[in-house]
Amino acid sequence: MKLILITILAAVISSNAKKLEEKYSWKELEYAWPSEEAKQEAIKSGRYIESHNLPLGLEVWKDKMFITVPRWKAGVASSLNYFVMSNDKSPVLHPYPSWEANELPEENHNKEHENYGGGRTDAKAAEKGENLLEKDSGKIISTFRIRADECDRLWVMDSGLADILGSPKQWAPNNIAIYDLNTDKLIKRFIIPEDQVKEDSFFANIIVDTQASDCSNAFAYLPDLGSYAVVVYDFKNDKSYRVKHNFFHFDPLQGDLTVGGVNFQWTDGVFGMALGKPINEHGDRTVYFHALASTKEFSVSNTVLKNETFATSSDAYHAYSLLGDRGSKSQSTAEFYDDKTDVIFYTQINRDAIGCWNIKKPYTPENQGLVDSDSHTLVFPNDLKVDNEGNLFVLSDRMPLFIYSSLQPEYNYRILTGKTSEIVTGTPCE
């Protein structure tokens, strides 16, 4: 009888748990064009092909939501964008910081597109275009993930690569662009040195480690999912270095994925990263990370990554820890720590779901919670963030269908949201 009562109580708690609410959705992305004539000219010239514009990353700063649109194919109107959050169901995107910054030179966009090869492109296959950064340091070519920090700065990891799935062209080197969000002005641009970019390198994420009390003392961690390393950028000294570790590699047994009925195999290494809360005035904290093609979670202290001499030596090997395994079919693209609940939220692309883990508990399958799962609205949850008010935002975009199959003329791109303190109710993360 006691067991029955516990089961009933658990069912009641679970039924009362709040799920994610769909906030925004798009059939196709639309932009705030200067005029209707400008839009039609872009369509005519091939610079704007609606079906080639897929949202991938998101960030929230005050009342603005930033959305990235990588140049997977030709015809992406603008790669870095924002809209002011409102009740508009399908808001138009405003290029950030401007249209001019996001425009590529006119070229022939009517090319055949090839299938994506598993999370990256061969750098040697990319045709070298003119370096647009030499002429205009404000240019944005193609970005995947972005991050706003506590100092009101937007950090943009720009791959510089366009038409990735078709005829790749490297318009600029891999670089970090940092903007002042209060003025929309470029603060600094850092180009990743060539010797830190390998043949299979692919930088699609950026994590920023800083505190509002010392904005000059900032570091950015750039996971290289293609050649299994992390590039660390030191903002104060304006330099970077490449860190390697076995834990950055993918698990060969976890690279088989099925999303939206499409089966494919990826070999993506370290990708998702989350920063724990600072434990002292020096900003020491834990860095959590995992490979995309993996179900395991690892950690390392940021004091390791910020120490170039130690981080790049073999002495650092045992400073990294295996936390545990999430369980079957729990591969993840992104994770984010919420300091209000002590919970790390993460995507589950094989399950059309969002998972969670309370960092105070052991990292076991039993302690992994399921915030929400939906085979319609959460097909390939690609990115997620928690804002300063404790709201979780999730972007789902059906990307494998976009790459390997085709998207249907329906709502394919969504942003869902929920209060972190409420959506963990009834889960092991509570």
Automatic annotation (TrEMBL):
Gene3D superfamilies given in the database record: TolB, C-terminal domain
Main location: secreted
Localization: Secreted
Tree of life domain: Eukaryota
Record keyword Transmembrane present: no
Keywords carried by this UniProt record: Secreted, Signal
GO cellular component entries: extracellular region
Signal sequence residues: 1-17
Record-stated family: Belongs to the major royal jelly protein family.
Protein name per its UniProtKB record: Protein yellow
Source species taxonomy: Eukaryota, Metazoa, Ecdysozoa, Arthropoda, Hexapoda
